[in-house]
Amino acid sequence: MEALRAPTPVSPPSLIRTQLSKPIFTLPFTPNKPYSPLTTLTQFKTPKFKTLTAISPSVSTEQETETHDQDEKFDWFSQWYAVMPVCDLDKRAPHGKKVMGLDVVVWWDKNENAWKVFDDMCPHRLAPLSQGRIDQWGRLQCVYHGWCFSGSGDCKLIPQAPPDGPPVNTFKKACVAVYPSTVQNGIVWFWPNTDPQYKDILTKKKPPSIPELDDPSYTFQMFNREIPYGYEILAENLMDPAHVDREGGAPIDITIDPIHKNGFTANQPYGGSKFVAPSVHISFTEIPKGKSAQPRRLLLIFICIPVSPGNSRLIFISGRNFAVGIDRIVPRWTFHIGQNLVIDSDLYLLHIEEKKLMEAGFSNWEKACFVPTKSDAKVVAFRKWLKKYSGGRIDWGNKFNKSLPSTPPREQLMDRYWSHVVNCSSCNGAYKGLKALEVALQVFSAAAVAMVAATKQGIISVAARNTLAVAAVLCFVGSKWLAYFVYKNFHFHDYNHAFQ
Q: What are the angstrom distances between the C-alpha of 386 and each of 18, 57, 329, 382, 459?
């Protein structure tokens, strides 16, 4: 993904910190010191380790480090996961999402002034609460039978219960399971476990934090899309700085710092990036100052969200502290057109790649793939991390079997409307506006033609009749072009590499 891949950085700003009782990552920017990529990035406890040199049976391209963590197995259900950017959530309605195989509903509790994440299932007859509404008292209401729930998950109303009968709405079985949740850096995060012992997990462990996204001197764009291939393929693709659409790639000298259960950092000439397990991959660059006194910095943040086998969700954030005025003028949806095109350029081949890897066996990635160059070092490091701490793939528990979804028709696989437009406030607004304009042009065109045909000669001048006729033709042509533009950019663009 050329436009989404990490640029070649020069010097790191302060980046991403996982806020535990002891920080996992810190990246202070120290311009007075000579640049040494990510020297202060990892602050894991690092017991004895040994350095290996081979990443494949025949080629040495990275430095692999074996560490001895206290608990070798990565617990996928004891992590914070991003759900959606706040800018793409409507406070007036509940939103259904799936993360780590869990169906959740995200909704705005105006009484507590906070986003809530519930199990997307009414305890009455298991109807999805995401198909419900927010009532006038700010409660989440199931529209099947009208049960209402507060932000704590308590049932506040069962319309069918007689007022003089037992208070059945107070029974424990009438409550909805509530997931710990928080908003950080403009994104809703949740902890995928409703056990009461995790109620205050936020005080002990916080989601990965990107300080620059809360810095008023920065501007940033957020993008989200549902991806029809799995988390593993999405993550390795976004860590790959070398893939190009045509010939023209060049060697990239990438080295990997010690791999830990919580992630790893990567270094390359004049830059680097890092992976914070399980979801966040961040790249950074500092652009030469020129006449500006302030260093110009650019961040690319990729949040890869496991949805289910063969499906994932991407939240992409690009942030910078220069040219900030552009984002105030140019609407967000115009940037998303290009970002969708980049994703589509790889989408079909990655969907097929995942199926081939499934046939070979996820734990056999190193045997199935030939990775002879250092430009593959980050991809190899990610696969080694995945194999070492999770057996080569996500541990879904007992939720899924080992099969992948079947391949739908290409137009459905690469559909943009249901995978992005309906989930993006900016693109959804633009889509509705452009469709309304299309209808308006067609109506004006038909009205102009009817007026010319119905008006007798002499009532209006020949020039006026000709003007109406030309306007009718232009509006008709404009509506057809607009229909093509909307379909290509908001529905389906068949990306064919042979003709690009």
A: 19, 19, 42, 6, 79
Could you give the CA distance from residue 254 to residue 268 in angstroms, rounded to a whole number?
A: 5
For the chain, how big is the Rg over CA atoms in Å? 26
Q: Classify 185 as helix, strand or coil.
A: coil
Cα separation values, 277 from 188, 221, 241, 351, Å: 17, 23, 19, 23
First and final CA of the chain: distance in angstroms? 15
The answer to whether the beta carbons of residues 240 and 233 sit under 8 Å apart is: no
Which amino acid type is present at position 102?
L
Residues in contact with 69: Cβ distance below 8 Å, sequence separation at least 6, in sequence order: 260, 261, 389
Amino acid at 488: K
Establish how many alpha carbons lie within 13 A of residue 245's alpha carbon, considering only the half-sphere containing its beta carbon: 17
SS3 content of the chain, % helix, strand, coil (to 5): 30, 25, 45
Q: 117-150 pLDDT, tens per residue?
A: 999 999 999 999 999 999 999 999 999 999 999 9
pLDDT of residue 381: 92
Give the H/E segment covering residue 272.
strand 271-276
* Least confident span in 125-129, 165-169, 400-404: 400-404
Helix ranges (H only) for 263-331 are 326-329
> What does DSSP assign to residue 460?
B
Distance of CA 306 to the CA centre of its chain: 10
CA distance linking residue 297 with residue 319, whole number of Å: 8
CB 224 within 8 A of CB 418: no
pTM comes to 0.84
Selection from 65, 118, 72 nearest residue 95 by Cα:
118
Q: Chain-wide mean pLDDT for the chain?
A: 83
- Residue-wise DSSP of 380-449: HHHHHHHHHHHTTS---TTS--S--PPP--HHHHT-STTTTGGG-HHHHHHHHHHHHHHHHHHHHHHHHH
Q: Distance of CA 414 to CAs 34, 174, 332, 403, Å?
A: 46, 41, 21, 21
